[in-house]
Design a protein that fits this description.
The complex is a heterodimer of chains A (447) and B (221). Chain A is an alpha+beta fold. Chain A has helices at residues 2-41, 46-55, 76-81, 88-92, 110-124, 126-133, 136-142, 151-154, 178-186, 188-195, 204-208, 221-229, 233-238, 244-250, 253-257, 280-296, 303-313, 333-336, 389-392, 405-438, and strands at residues 61-63, 69-71, 263-271, 322-330, 363-368, 374-379. With 221 residues, chain B is mainly α. Chain B has helices at residues 9-33, 43-69, 83-103, 119-144, 150-155, 159-183, 192-199, 206-211; strands at residues 3-5, 201-203, 219-220. The chains are: A alpha+beta (447), B mainly alpha (221).
Chain lengths: 447, 221
């Protein structure tokens, strides 16, 4: 009986749940259509219509103090379709006093005006603002880089569409990173995206994030982005790649998956206790002096200088231990985006695991710059095969490709000893027996 | 000619498996390290081969260790506790190999069941079997999967340190195997020690028979 009552209760609960789900689904299905319909009709408020009465006129612009021209034109139709239609003009332009508008407001320059406008965006998008503040873009803005993007450079404020940056045509990144974007479009990700079939293929923000953009080579964020989609990659590689885990740690994905890219080894000064790269400020004076002297000699840092440099980083009771972490990567951002389908990726171990491999012909040494991007200095390729590397680059080693030459000499000596000892011993024996025979001393072995 | 049973079956099996394995490891190791200079098989094939042979030899090492730990034959590996006695014995053995052997002098070391190694062999084999071979296996395992053993690899200073130790011992074994094979041919006939390593029985020369404590178990005539 108890179970029957419980069954009845469960049935009623299920019916009630079903009803609510159906109702919510109906509402959700109806909502986009309603919204679309409203935009099509242009549900501008009266206040917005008043603004557009003037600002809807093409060519309306203002001459600024620095002789820049600021366009004051807003396309009403586009604005009516944008997501900002919901908040209207006054929400962002709250400083406009209609009684005195248009007044004689002084604006020093278009860039200054846009930079100041970031705070307006922050009013609603504080989470995105915080992400942006930690980004390399914001860092460049703070450094006074006039080309560094602010909110309005990527998001045209009067034409912000929902998910606007979700197709190749509207991606704002290409405005500054056009060469990289072209490489991306030609890549396996770009092709899949443009075909439309691989809707999961990432756009720029899929790997770099939209707002918290860091220097791509600063840490493992990009690699983690790769593995975010290709979650089974490590297991798949482990099927055929010896030491797959180590490869994943020290080889960047494009180093193999962009087979036509040029590769290099970047040796990073890192704190052993954290994955963070040692910042520029910490050791740069000494670093600079060593690098300058190496550059003056016409070569990069040599093995001894690098070893000495590492020791100077760890002198004077440094809090953490600075180590050199090696990483095989491609040389440019453009090459990092030339990803091919996996069948064309480098899978021949001999490509790297041989002396003179192209992968080890270019070596840089880097510290973290103030904006997070690495500051690179040239190094001699011989640093990878010097006996000093046992201590200084103890964590980076590619069998065959970066083998230590001194050990090769040791092997040759061992082979010479292994063959020489028997030969010398036999020769010595032959000469000794001959001597004994000449002296007339009985040779027991012949007796 | 009297024979003495000095190499029991487990030791012979271990020895020849070890010999084939070490030569294979040296050859595959050369291929791994010198791609481009040597291109007999691909790098990946050489690595896989090297790994598999390595694991077989690790198992084989425990055959050797197990046999000696649970057998009275371990006396063959007992160290000479008197340094002077050991030193003099080594000098006598070097003199023998240096010129005594060419004069036809008898070998100063007389083989017996529990003393099959001369003083030089005794010292060297203890270093090889109890130090170098275990280190080589250990470093090999660390290099086999660096990430899995990253804590230990880091403890020793990094993959390059571990690999350098592995290569240094590899270099030693290259010389060792060549010289070992030659010294094996310095019995009373060039093939005597080789035959003994297959049959288990060392042939004793007259001087050696007289030096035996007593003809008992393990001897044949």
């Amino acid at each position: 009986m108890e179970s029957l009552r419980r069954d009845g209760t469960n049935t009623r609960t299920a019916l009630r749940t079903g009803f609510f789900i159906t109702a919510i689904a109906t509402l959700l299905l109806a909502l986009p259509a309603t919204t679309k319909h409203a935009w099509a009709q242009g549900t501008l408020s009266d206040a917005d219509k008043t603004c557009l009465g003037c600002h809807g006129s093409a060519g309306l612009e203002k001459r600024l103090d620095n002789a820049d021209t600021l366009s004051l034109h807003v396309d009403g139709e586009t604005f009516a379709k944008s997501v900002h239609i919901a908040i209207g003009c006054a929400s962002c332009h709250a400083d406009v006093d209609l009684a005195k508008h248009p007044g004689d407001k002084k604006i020093s320059g278009a860039r200054d005006y846009s930079v100041a406008s970031i705070q307006i965006c922050r009013g609603c998008h504080d989470d995105k603002f915080k992400q942006y503040q930690g980004s390399i873009h914001a860092s460049l803005v703070r450094d006074g880089n006039a080309a560094a993007p602010i909110c309005t450079d990527c998001h045209s404020p009067h034409a912000v569409m929902s998910k606007a940056a979700s197709d190749l045509k509207s991606v704002p990144c290409k405005n500054c990173h056009s060469a990289i974007f072209e490489a991306y479009v030609a890549s396996t990700h770009g092709k899949a995206r443009s075909r439309g079939v691989g809707s999961f293929a990432p756009l720029c923000s899929g790997c770099h994030t939209a707002h918290a953009i860091a220097a791509a080579s600063a840490d493992d964020t990009i690699k983690e982005a790769c593995l975010g989609c290709h979650a089974g990659a490590l297991d798949a590689h482990a099927q055929w790649l010896p030491n797959a885990g180590l490869h994943f740690e020290v080889v960047s994905c494009p180093a193999c998956h962009a087979p036509n890219a040029r590769r290099r080894v970047d040796l990073r000064f890192q704190d052993n206790t954290t994955p963070a790269q040692v910042p520029e400020q910490k050791g740069v004076p000494r670093f600079e002096s060593h690098v300058r002297s190496a550059e003056a000699a016409g070569k990069g840092l040599d093995a001894v200088t690098l070893w000495t440099l590492l020791r100077t980083f760890n002198q004077d009771g440094a809090a953490g231990k600075t180590v050199l972490r090696g990483r095989l990567e491609v040389r440019t951002g453009i090459e990092a985006h030339q990803l091919t389908e996996k069948s064309k990726a480098i899978s021949n171990c001999d490509t790297c695991h041989r002396q003179g491999s192209e992968a080890f012909q270019s070596v840089t040494v880097s510290v973290a710059g103030p904006d997070g991007r690495p500051i690179r200095f040239g190094a001699s390729k011989d640093v990878l095969s010097s006996v000093f590397s046992i201590d200084s680059i103890s964590g980076f080693y590619a069998i065959g490709g970066t083998r230590i030459h001194l050990l090769d000499i040791g092997l040759v000596l061992a082979i010479l000893a292994g063959l020489g000892v028997p030969i010398i011993h036999m020769t010595w024996g032959w000469l000794f027996r001959r001597y004994l025979k000449r002296q007339g001393i009985v040779d027991h072995t012949k007796a | 000619m009297q024979k003495i049973y000095v190499h029991p079956l487990p030791v012979r099996v271990w020895h020849w498996l070890n010999a084939i394995g070490f030569v294979s490891l040296i050859l595959s190791g050369l291929q791994i390290r010198y791609v481009g200079l040597i291109d007999v098989v691909s790098f990946r094939t050489a690595v896989n081969l090297h790994n598999w042979i390595g694991f077989v030899l690790i198992a084989n090492f425990f055959v050797w260790l197990g046999f000696y730990l649970f057998s009275d034959r371990i006396k063959a590996y007992h160290p000479e506790l008197s340094p002077m006695k050991h030193f003099h014995g080594s000098i006598r053995q070097m003199q023998y190999y240096g010129y005594g052997i060419f004069k036809g002098d008898p070998n100063p070391h007389h083989v017996s069941i529990y003393r099959k190694f001369n003083p030089m062999q005794s010292m060297l084999y203890q270093i090889v079997m109890l130090l170098l071979v275990p280190i080589q296996f250990y470093t090999g395992i660390l290099i086999w999967d660096v990430k899995r053993f990253s804590a230990q690899v880091d403890f020793f200073g990094g993959v390059r340190v571990v690999d350098t130790i592995h290569v240094l011992i590899f270099i030693f074994f290259v010389a060792f195997v060549l010289i070992h094979a030659y010294l094996g041919a310095l019995g009373h006939t060039p093939s005597a020690h080789y035959k003994a390593m297959f049959s288990g029985y060392e042939e004793l020369e007259d001087e050696e028979i007289q030096a035996q404590p007593a003809a008992g178990a393990g001897t044949q005539t």
